[in-house]
Specification:
Order of helices and strands: HHEEEHEHHEHEEHEEEHEEHEHEH
Largest sheet: 9 strands, mixed
Distance between the termini: 34 Å
Shape: globular
Helix content: 25-40%
């Protein structure tokens, strides 16, 4: 916990933690992480995707277990989201310096999971899995700096990224510790949870077109009110998701034209995002919502356009790795409470390379992505105990 407090100082000024990739704050974090990795007797290097890697050899180093998470934050975020999954494994391996493990271990500190500075994310894990679209290196931040330029300014060589891809034959699996699970564990007074799946996500962009008219002189029965149609859609999204377990939906963006108090809205543009650990359930819900929006538009004589703008498949956590995490927890007297992740993580990209598992840690009131983010030393200690026991007990052959 002291190390996490120290790490929180690697931040732009302002409330909470603001640490974006390939910035002085990122460099500050890497310096601390390198020091702590080396203190745990790890061999450390920075790859050309900006991932800091600390490696410990095993009795048989032909197979490697990967542990890790991301060091970056959102603007004014908390001091635990992401970075806990790097610092905690370092502490565990430091405690196990005298213990012989039958496999090699690497701790991965990824540069960019949040996708805040640049319109891309999961750069580090996608480089390791060989799934990175190199075109994203030309994307720019709000200051006009490209990913490629930012990486080069950070003494990296982005042209070498294709050579970073790892072979799945050498990797046992990837395990990530994280707090970003909402209020479930806190509400049930559970320190930790075993993740069964990482939700799939899809996003839709919707535009409803009606006709602007005077708010005082146009009778209600002849209005072509685009916002009223959007309101029906928003309500239907909420109702559908409230009535369906393992499904959440959000309309987080809404723009009205002409956006004047005395004019009937001619146009409403809004987003629909759906998340679920069940691919078929999410897909079925999306089809139902899209059809409802079309029917609403027809009923109200509105023109409509709907486009799917993003889709990410759900990731099922590996049953064997997850079961071994659960066994480690139960051996120390902690129930193996299971839950689905409603947020995406580096593990979702790492699944293209190896089996993945996740250990969630309770956070107060389920708050994350906010400077009020808080965990207890007790819950962090439980997670450290369970991960250490997992490392000692795990025999991959």
């Amino acid at each position: 916990m002291r190390r996490l407090d120290i790490m929180a100082e690697c931040s732009e000024p302002g409330p909470g933690v603001t640490r974006l990739p390939f910035t002085p704050e990122h460099h500050c974090a890497l310096k601390l992480l390198r020091e702590w990795m080396e203190a745990a007797d790890l061999a450390v290097h920075l790859d050309d995707a900006g991932t800091l890697i600390g490696r410990r050899e095993g009795e048989d180093s032909s197979k490697t277990l990967l542990l890790g998470s991301h060091q970056d934050s959102i603007p004014h975020g908390g001091r635990y989201d992401g970075i806990l999954g790097i610092v905690l494994p370092i502490v565990c391996l430091e405690a196990l310096r005298a213990e012989k493990l039958p496999y090699a271990v690497e701790i991965l500190a990824f540069a960019d999971e949040e996708g805040v500075r640049f319109p891309t994310a999961l750069l580090g894990p996608r480089a390791l899995t060989g799934t990175l679209d190199l075109n994203v290196l030309d994307r720019r931040d709000r200051a006009g700096i490209s990913v490629r330029q930012a990486m080069s300014d950070h003494a990296l060589q982005p042209d070498n990224i294709p050579a970073l891809a790892r072979s799945s034959e050498d990797i046992i699996g990837y395990v990530e510790v994280h707090i970003e699970q909402g209020p479930v564990l806190y509400g049930k007074k559970q320190s930790i949870g075993i993740v069964t799946a990482i939700c799939g996500i899809e996003r839709w962009s919707v535009s409803l077109h009606g006709r602007a008219a005077h708010a005082g002189t146009t009778p209600m029965n002849i209005r072509l009110d685009a916002l009223a149609g959007a309101a029906e859609a928003v309500t239907f999204v909420e109702q559908t998701c409230r009535q369906t377990s393992d499904l959440v939906g959000t309309v987080g963006s809404l723009h009205v034209t002409p956006n004047a108090v005395n004019v009937i809205p001619a146009r409403a543009d809004f987003s629909v995002e759906l998340r679920s650990g069940d691919e078929q359930l999410r897909s079925n819900a999306a089809a139902e919502i899209v059809e409802h929006i079309k029917q609403t538009a027809a009923k109200r004589n509105l023109d409509v356009s709907i486009e799917q703008t993003y889709v990410q498949s759900a990731t099922q956590c590996d049953a064997d790795l997850s079961g071994r995490l659960e066994d480690a927890a139960k051996s120390k007297g902690f129930p193996g409470f299971r839950l689905v992740s409603g947020a995406t993580h580096d593990a979702s990209a790492m699944a293209a390379l190896a089996p993945v598992a996740m250990l969630f840690v309770s956070c107060r009131d389920g708050i994350s992505h906010h400077h009020a983010e808080s965990i207890t030393s007790h819950d962090a200690g439980v997670a450290a105990t369970v991960l250490t026991e997992f490392l000692v007990r795990y025999v991959p052959y």
